[in-house]
Amino acid sequence: QVQLVESGGGLAQAAGSPRLSCAASGRTISRYATVWFRQAAGQVCVFVAGISWSGGSTWYADSVKGRFTSSRDNAKNTVYLQMNSLKSEDTAVYYCAADDRVRVANLRKKDEYNYWGQGTQVTVSS
Predict the structure, then answer these.
(1) By CB neighbour count within 10 A (0-12 exposed, 13-18 middle, 19+ buried), where does 55 fall?
(2) Can you give the C-alpha Rg of the chain in angstroms?
(3) Which of the four, 8, 19, 26, 41, has the lowest number of CB atoms within 10 Å?
(4) For the chain, first and last CA: distance in Å?
């Protein structure tokens, strides 16, 4: 089993640059594609960013492309989401998810992931 724990959320200033972390335990996720989803209040959970197991490929939602960057340190069993130029619409609970059997074509589908963190709230203040 894989346990994922997100951290780094909280109150952030608009145009700020917080970094979220997703630390894995129980098993190495060095062979797992890892993604970030977010869910704003009253809205559905949506894909934000993803990174391949090697870190060689990344994917982003159009809403965050050019502002957010996903990276990973497999030696630390941790994935990161660097968030830059925050906007009020980035306010949401951010979840990391991982799985070792996700195909690239299905990367943005939350049902493809067996392992999820508990989420971390990011609130952007203007």
Answers:
(1) middle
(2) 13
(3) 41
(4) 40
Q: Give me the amino acid identity at 125.
A: S
**Contact indicator for 113, 97 with CB cutoff of 8 Å:** yes
Kindly compute the dihedral angle of the four CA atoms of residues 19, 7, 47, 77, in this order, to the nearest 10 degrees.
Answer: 90
Q: Pick from 93, 94, 89, 99: which is nearest to 32 by CA?
A: 99
Per-residue pLDDT tens digits for 69-80: 999 999 999 999
3-state helix, strand, coil in the chain (%, to 5): 5, 50, 45
> Residue 35 contacts by C-beta under 8 Å, 6 or more apart in sequence?
47, 48, 49, 50, 51, 59, 96, 97, 98, 107, 108, 113
Q: Which two tokens stand for residue 46?
A: 């949506």
Q: Strand, coil or helix: what is 112?
A: helix
From the number of C-beta atoms within 10 Å of its C-beta (0-12, 13-18, 19+), residue 6 rates as buried
